[in-house]
């Protein structure tokens, strides 16, 4: 490795600016959420306080955000579990060509590119016309899956494209049944990637707005509640809420990444031990 | 010998078709119920009629006639394309540069992964919060204006920073550059490094290597990123509404306004036209890339 070329420093500067651009606004509202009780939506800070966070915990002040949070959490977990299971099954299936696999693949691409508002409108209309109750756990749940499943599958495709079939052949040669091969060979190998799929499933659901807009029914999820606040709340309480959910998202990401890292490390020590 | 034959003989397993279909049936079921049927529903409803208080089943072209007869439609579609093209150009420029830095200038894999995650994490947080967080920056009394004022670069606060096309595109770039970075980085990491050495040895300058080796080999990633960014911007309604302060319009807002007025047939007709336009654009882009091979 020679000395770094001058272009390195230029690009490193661009990259740093990009990171500042990505995180700067979030950090700003995090700071502003500690505004004093008289403070406004921008600087200067008029003192520092936890006033706006306290407001969040007073039920009547800003609507039902804790109920919304609970619903988003449950919905996120539902979406996460289904996304992981269905993506793995789909990923396994797509390794071989079967009748209609091409059509289904393009349907999946369509799910990625069809504007979210169409999904929202269509599912809302369909449930309404069919006389089914529009509810976040039914219509909202399904509408979100049309977004998380393609992402999960894309990750599975990437994983299986790099998967060495020799492991499976070895298992088969040793007399493992197809199910045993999947259970004891394939799944353990792809497990760290499944953590990634789960993370995507949960966070995409937890933050989804457009697809739940017309499919959540009378009980809001958290992003819908936040959006409602943007139209009628003009105090830093909205920054406090934004900061809290972002901190929560970071915590979730941290837990998942930590899990993947721990799994990786355990695997390496085990491999080294043999 | 007999033992070996018994073990390696094909086990009694389901044919590839049956096994495949069993495995994808949940996926197919979800996509049919929550994507195919809803889209069919929208197409059907787009031919329905509206009274002041309700919608009724019919087969009439009124909604389309109104849509295509209105000058607003063309203006709004044009505006939607404008957002898409500008956002695409900016996200491509920034996304390529960032991915190039990560793939070719960061030397250890640990740092690569760490910096890549640093770019990816914001994507996993709330879009709405990320939009809200521009307010303290761009408002009349925001950070940008006060900084520019105190530096003496402007005499009066700039009004066009927030609630303008500028802020809409800024938010799009902020939200969606990641969709360029990830696929481009992914493709770059698969470029055989010996090709770059070969270009160096053959006397190519850094720029020539970039233009004639790296860019052509990165095209599939660029295409995938383009597909994401273009569809996200064209289908958006919330960013335009929020960041323009309801002053600019795109097709998504046209649809959501109709929905708010319970004009579902009219909303559906606009949605169908939007869908056709998006599918044509994506269909064209897909001709240049084999997505399944590039993952």
TrEMBL record, chain A:
GO CC terms: plasma membrane
Record-annotated ABC transmembrane type-1 domain positions: 69-256
Keyword Membrane tagged: yes
InterPro entries: Bact_Polyamine_Transport (IPR051789), MetI-like (IPR000515), MetI-like_sf (IPR035906)
Record's keyword annotation contains rRNA-binding: no
Membrane topology classification: Multi-pass membrane protein
Family annotation (SUPFAM superfamilies): MetI-like
Source species, domain of life: Bacteria
Biological process annotations from GO: transmembrane transport
Membrane-crossing segments per the record: 7-34, 73-92, 104-127, 147-164, 185-206, 237-262
Locations listed in the record: Cell membrane
CDD domains linked: TM_PBP2
Pfam families with a match to the protein in the record: BPD_transp_1 (PF00528)
Chief subcellular location: membrane
Protein keywords: Cell membrane, Membrane, Transmembrane, Transmembrane helix, Transport
Entry-linked PANTHER family: PUTRESCINE TRANSPORT SYSTEM PERMEASE PROTEIN POTI
Family: Belongs to the binding-protein-dependent transport system permease family. CysTW subfamily.
Protein name listed in UniProt: Inner membrane ABC transporter permease protein YdcV
UniProtKB/TrEMBL annotation, chain B:
Subcellular compartments: Cell membrane
Membrane topology of the entry: Multi-pass membrane protein
Transmembrane segments annotated in the record for this chain: 21-48, 83-103, 115-138, 158-185, 264-289
CDD domains linked to this entry: TM_PBP2
Domain ABC transmembrane type-1 stretches: 77-285
Coiled-coil residues: none
Major site of localization recorded for this protein: membrane
Keyword Transmembrane: yes
Any one cellular-component term (Gene Ontology): plasma membrane
InterPro entries: MetI-like, MetI-like_sf
Signal peptide segment: none
Alphabetical UniProt keywords: Cell membrane, Membrane, Transmembrane, Transmembrane helix, Transport
Keyword Membrane found: yes
GO biological-process terms attached to the record: transmembrane transport
PROSITE patterns documented for this protein: ABC_TM1
Family: Belongs to the binding-protein-dependent transport system permease family. CysTW subfamily.
Protein name in UniProt: Putrescine transport system permease protein PotH
Record organism: Jannaschia donghaensis
């Amino acid at each position: 490795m020679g000395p770094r070329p001058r272009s390195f420093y230029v690009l490193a500067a661009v990259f740093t600016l990009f990171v500042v651009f990505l995180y700067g606004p979030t950090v700003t509202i995090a700071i502003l959420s500690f505004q004093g009780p008289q403070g406004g939506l921008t600087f200067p800070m008029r003192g520092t306080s936890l006033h706006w966070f306290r407001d969040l915990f007073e039920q009547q002040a800003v609507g039902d955000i804790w109920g919304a949070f609970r619903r988003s959490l449950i919905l996120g977990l539902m979406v996460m579990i289904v996304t992981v299971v269905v993506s793995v099954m789909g990923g396994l299936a797509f390794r071989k060509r079967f009748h209609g696999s091409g059509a289904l693949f393009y349907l999946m691409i369509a799910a990625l590119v069809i504007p979210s508002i169409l999904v929202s409108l269509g599912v809302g209309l369909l449930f309404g016309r069919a006389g089914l109750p529009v509810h976040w756990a039914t219509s909202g749940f399904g509408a979100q899956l049309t977004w998380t499943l393609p992402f999960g599958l894309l990750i599975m495709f990437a994983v299986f494209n790099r998967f060495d079939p020799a492991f499976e052949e070895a298992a088969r040669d040793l007399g493992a049944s197809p199910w045993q091969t999947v259970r004891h060979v394939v799944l353990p190998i792809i497990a760290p990637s499944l953590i990634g799929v789960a993370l995507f499933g949960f966070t995409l659901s937890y933050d989804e707005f457009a697809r739940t807009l017309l499919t959540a029914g009378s009980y809001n999820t958290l992003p819908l509640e936040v959006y409602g606040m943007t139209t009628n709340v003009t105090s830093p309480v909205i920054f406090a809420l934004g900061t809290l959910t972002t901190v929560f998202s970071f915590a979730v990401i941290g837990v998942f990444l930590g899990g993947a890292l721990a799994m990786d490390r355990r695997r390496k020590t085990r491999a080294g031990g043999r | 010998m007999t033992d070996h034959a018994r073990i390696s003989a094909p086990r009694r397993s389901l044919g590839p078709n049956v096994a495949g279909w069993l495995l994808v049936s949940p996926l197919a079921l979800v996509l049919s119920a929550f994507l195919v049927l809803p889209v069919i529903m929208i197409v059907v409803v787009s031919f329905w009629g509206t009274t002041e208080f309700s919608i009724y089943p019919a087969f009439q072209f009124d909604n389309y006639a109104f849509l295509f007869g209105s000058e607003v439609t063309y203006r709004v579609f044009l505006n939607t394309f404008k957002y898409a093209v500008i956002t695409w150009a900016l996200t491509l420029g920034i996304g390529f540069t960032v991915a190039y830095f990560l793939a070719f200038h960061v030397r250890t894999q640990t740092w690569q992964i760490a910096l890549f995650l640093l770019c990816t994490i914001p994507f996993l947080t709330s879009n709405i919060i990320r939009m809200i967080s521009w307010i303290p920056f761009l408002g009349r009394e925001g950070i940008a204006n006060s900084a520019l004022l105190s530096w003496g670069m402007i005499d009066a606060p700039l009004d066009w920073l927030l609630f303008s096309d500028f802020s809409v595109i800024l938010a799009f770039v902020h939200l969606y550059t990641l969709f360029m970075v990830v696929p481009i980085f992914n493709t770059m990491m698969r470029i055989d490094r010996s090709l770059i050495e070969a270009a160096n040895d053959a006397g190519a300058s850094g720029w020539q290597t970039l233009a004639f080796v790296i860019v052509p080999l990165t095209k599939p990633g660029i295409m995938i990123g383009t597909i994401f960014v273009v569809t996200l911007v064209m289908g958006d309604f919330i960013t335009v509404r929020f960041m323009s302060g309801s002053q600019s319009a795109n097709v998504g807002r046209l649809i959501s306004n109709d929905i708010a007025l319970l004009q579902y047939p009219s909303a559906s007709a606009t949605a169908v036209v939007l869908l056709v336009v998006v599918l044509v654009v994506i269909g064209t882009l897909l001709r240049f890339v084999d997505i399944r091979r590039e993952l």
